[in-house]
Amino acid sequence: MSPIRFVCLSDLHFGAENSLLTHLPDGALTVDPTKPSDVLEQLVACLSEVVKSSVGSSLPTLVLNGDVLEFALATDNVAAMAFDRFVDLAFDPVTPLFGPVVYYVPGNHDHHLWEVARERQYSDYVMSVPPDVDLGPPWHVTRMFERVAADDDAWPGDELPSAELLEALMRRRLGDASVTVKIAYPNLGYSSPDGSATVIFHHGHFIESMYVLMTELRLAMFPSTTRGANVWDWESDNFAWIDFFWSTLGRSGESGAGVGIIYNMLQSPPALKWLAGNLGGSVSELVPGPRVAKKAVTPALRRALGAVAGRATKLERHTPGAVLSDDATAGLGRYLSGPLRAQLEAEHAGGSASRVSFVFGHTHKPFERSGALDGFARPVAMFNTGGWVVDTSTVNEVQGAAAIVVDEDGHVASLRLYNQYDGQGPSTVCVAADPTGEPNPLHDELSRALDFNAEPWTSFSLAVAGAVRQRHEALPRIIDHAMVDPDGAQPTAG
Known about the structure:
There is one protein chain. The chain is of the alpha/beta class and 494 residues long. Helices cover 39% and strands 13% of the residues. A hairpin with a 4-residue loop joins strand 10 (400-407) and strand 11 (412-419).
């Protein structure tokens, strides 16, 4: 087995009360980010076992594949302090698990960190351009494969910018100015030394139509236009929408707190009906005209808002029963065969002819599969990391999380860490079967080296089981608390 090159974690959602990796005291409705959760402590202990199994002399590189900081459902300082707890454990100066360079691929919930990075990157570019030379436009994506300034034909946009907030948090905790966090957005690529294998990391939000909504609206309003062929087109169309609703709105004072309440209410039809009724009645009061006109508007607004809320509940993470819905499956193929393949062909000599593995998260439902896709010479292996939040009030057995491990030769293994279960026993950790059916020495070596029936794996599974039950019990109480009037009266949902 070649040395482990990357360990990929995604959808950690540090700061959210429904994240298993954020400490939620028993019986509480708000998190305590000054302490690590039991699950976080046990997870780091398990990842230590994985790192020890590597034959390499250097530590693997951590890839954070989006939705690391919860900006939609937590304030910046709470999310940052919850992330601190991870840094303290995983990058302990005495026994660090990972090397000093971290790669970060933003998701929809922390998309704003990409916006900050690209604006700083553009400012640096502006300062490098002579005053008598025209400026180019700001760019919306990074390269998939990193290049360095020493390359003869490199320009400022070829270098991956820093994720300044994450980097500052890590340097502050570790007292080490050499720690670096590099952003690649929306795709990060790795090619094996011989060029025969390619691994691509992407958060996964672009597989859902909700995150390309501005493109869909443009096509509807201007039928003569076309869907962009490149990832730049997809991001430039939709970046403001993604950034607004999933990354910055939740940080907007009391309004942001309300957004968090709405996210939770997506799990409760009575709560959504109550919320739509409140909004409908309030908005109708803004309609000019006599009182009778206002009363006529209210039911229509309630129906419209209810329909919007119903659409929101159909997001992939709220779709039970299948690891990927038909719509998301189509979206996955559309993204891979379209803008991702175009970027791969433009940057990588082997292009889509190499052995390609695609690693993504976002859906909170881990899986492994392989399939033929237009434009790829070989079936593409697809690995989903799942996620670390419990965003339903009942058990959803397809939801869970995995850590994705990649060796230097581009072999990929999915370490399935948990799935929600029916309460009969703790979830089972395993190295998932390779979806390609081809020889995979990384998979075989991890399966031999890791004893999932021993510590720390057994304690990890028990901690996860308890935390999942805690979140299932807490979510209805959080929703009920949000529906209580200021005077303490419980409103009806009718």
